[in-house]
Amino acid sequence: MRLIDLSSPVDAEFWEPDPVEHRVLTPAQGARHMADEMREHLGLDFDPAVLPDGEFLNNDTFTLTVHTGTHVDAPAHYGSRAAYGTPRTVDQLPLDWFCRPGLLLDLRDEPPGAAGPDALERAFERAGARPAPMDVVLLWTGADVHLGTRKYFSEFTGLDGDAVRLLLDAGVRVIGTDAFSLDAPFPIIIERYLATGDRSVLWPAHFAGREREYCQIERLGSLGALPAPTGFRVVCFPVKLARAGAGWARAVAMLD
């Protein structure tokens, strides 16, 4: 079996709207920390100098949002109420949604903004396939070439509400993208709203999740490494974060 990593990293050196903080505890610092903890909590005195090289174990502390790096958006992310009932958090979602056949749709020729159903129909034709119920649909926009820079958050292609509904009508429950968001970039959305006053342009892809239950996988990577639009399985289990609206995922394609 061949495995293809479809995830983008969490990297404190990347530009992020909410910066990532990465604090490192070296093995030597870990030894002193362990000795301090033993003394404080158990009343035990331990000299870390007796350890090989005076080192114990290292540790890393990351401070970041659940929307940093490749992650799964749960229905609770889209709002506190939904037409179908109380939206589920990421720890409540069925695991079988996240181990399913995949369909890769090439949207790299679409301009920044929100692509509609016509763009999906063209992508279906190029792929030679349409989504089957419960397929994981992956949108290859090419946005990950800007990963780690400001452009990653402002220059990409998303979907409009009708395009999302087209996929949901086909029975899709998980839609993935290599872009920052499944919606159009924030500046494009806000500028269009200010010019028109049309509220329907405000994050329609996300808000479609208030009508019907589905998940997004945002900030995927290396979709171009997939050898064909079909013939692979996507595995993208979200981390089980209690009561959270999203969870980080290591997305992988499995090819027989």
Which secondary structure elements does this structure contain, and how are they paired or packed?
Blueprint: E1 2-5, E2 21-25, H1 27-42, E3 59-63, E4 71-73, E5 99-106, E6 113-115, H2 117-127, E7 136-140, E8 157-159, H3 161-169, E9 174-177, H4 186-196, H5 204-207, E10 215-218, E11 233-235, E12 246-248, E13 252-255
Parallel strand pairs: 5-7, 6-8, 7-9, 9-10
Antiparallel strand pairs: 1-13, 2-3, 4-10, 4-12, 5-11, 11-13
Helix pairs in contact: 2-3
Give a written overview of the molecule.
The protein is of the alpha/beta class and 256 residues long. The chain folds into two domains: 5-9 and 66-255, 3-Layer(bba) Sandwich (Glucose Oxidase, domain 1), CATH 3.50.30; 21-63, no CATH class. It has five helices and 13 strands. The chain has helices at 27-42, 117-127, 161-169, 186-196, 204-207, and strands at residues 2-5, 21-25, 59-63, 71-73, 99-106, 113-115, 136-140, 157-159, 174-177, 215-218, 233-235, 246-248, 252-255.
